[in-house]
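Think of the structure tokens as a kind of shorthand, similar to the way a musician reads notation: each symbol stands for something richer, in this case the local conformation of the backbone. In the example below we present two proteins back to back. Begin with the first one, reading the sequence and then the tokens, and try to describe in your own words what changes along the chain.
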Amino acid sequence: LATELSWEYNIQPICLPVTPQLRVRLFKEFIVTGWGLNELYQPHQVLQEAVLPLVSNADCQQRSSIDLTEKQLCTGGGHRAETGFGDGGGPLGYATNYNGAMRFVQFGVVSLRVETRDGKDRYTIFTRVASYMDWIVENIVP
């Protein structure tokens, strides 16, 4: 970075699901954050946050036209908050106990949005971070 970061309460490195327990853990809902575009296609000035319900891959596949693998997660439905244009690559996470402290752990990366077959709803598909943890750990440069 051009300037040094100063860690503050709301500026921290994100945690990854490195423990075996966190790699298989799925919550009923997750938090997604992003700076995506607003309804006027302008960038948000404030970081946006939404709570998204987890949808099983089987239900997501049945209601949409996408084939999912175990390396993906599906959220959304029910006309609740969702990701927007410009949110791709953003984190999907959850605040959980991590080595004795509450930390925000990243479980997914925003990949794409898909509509249901009937066009009445949308889902967000995420790349599942746990599926790539072995590679991430092997390639981290200390």
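Once you have a description of the first chain, move to the second and do the same.
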Amino acid sequence: MSRVYLLGAGFSQAAGAPLLRDAMKKGVLACKDYANLGEVKIWLEKLFAPQHGVDSLNFEEVLSRLDLELHYNKYEEEEKKQLELVKEEVVSLFLNALEQCSKQKLPEEYYIFARRLQPEDVVINLNYDLVLENALLATKRFYPDYKLLFSGQTVPGLISFPVLKPHGSLNLYYCPHCLRVCQLKTQDYSGIINKYRILGGCGHFLRPLIITPTLYKSYGLEEMRQIWFNCLTALIQAQKIIFIGYSLPKADVLVAQMLDFAQRLNKNNLEVEVVNGISPDLRAIASLYQGRIINSGKSFREWVKGV
């Protein structure tokens, strides 16, 4: 059976990955360099006027707003440079928070999940963290294959397993000049934050490939268009789709469109299962698949140990 696993933030929560509403707070706590935080706070207070401090803001909402400000508002050149720096610092805070969970030993359920994956399965991972990648490498059977066109990696002796990350990843960077995507060449993914702004092969600094699920997305990158096409193809061919820790939030417009388009073209007797704990909000997914869903009410830990 061809299975597609679609992973949301709830998948990585038990591994310590911050939810988006907590990412700013955890990023500030993990930050060792406060040099530019004052400027960041000034800009975020100006744009959002938060009641409980800037670390109470949702990371994706912040990054989306900064994207829109940079793209549509007419700032003076100096102000625009300041805002670009603020965006880089916000991303850096988020990477700090993500890296903390990437260094920790994972709970056993992640290794069980990774061992049960089959070569014909596909994972669409909407998270930026490397929880699944670390679990796959620990099996000594699979290595995560992002299906990149130009800079994919192989691991001798291990089987390629497709992990498609349409929102980017902690270990993916891109060059704003030549638009190439670069996967960091490391197996344990530790110390990634220290490699921030590495010099690319064409002589330009690389930027983290972290894409927020909003209408304004960086899909001018050929690599990202290919990843989205691979996601669509996998969903069209799937016999079963398993949503883990994901409830299709309203902000994720392009994922919703992709799922809708794929289910219309899918000619299989498609099964849809949701693993999202007790009483999840299934309205969006149920509406999309016209109620054809299986929901055991189990958490990821309960589900993976009971499969």
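Compare your description with these statements about the second chain. The two ends are 15 Å apart (CA to CA).
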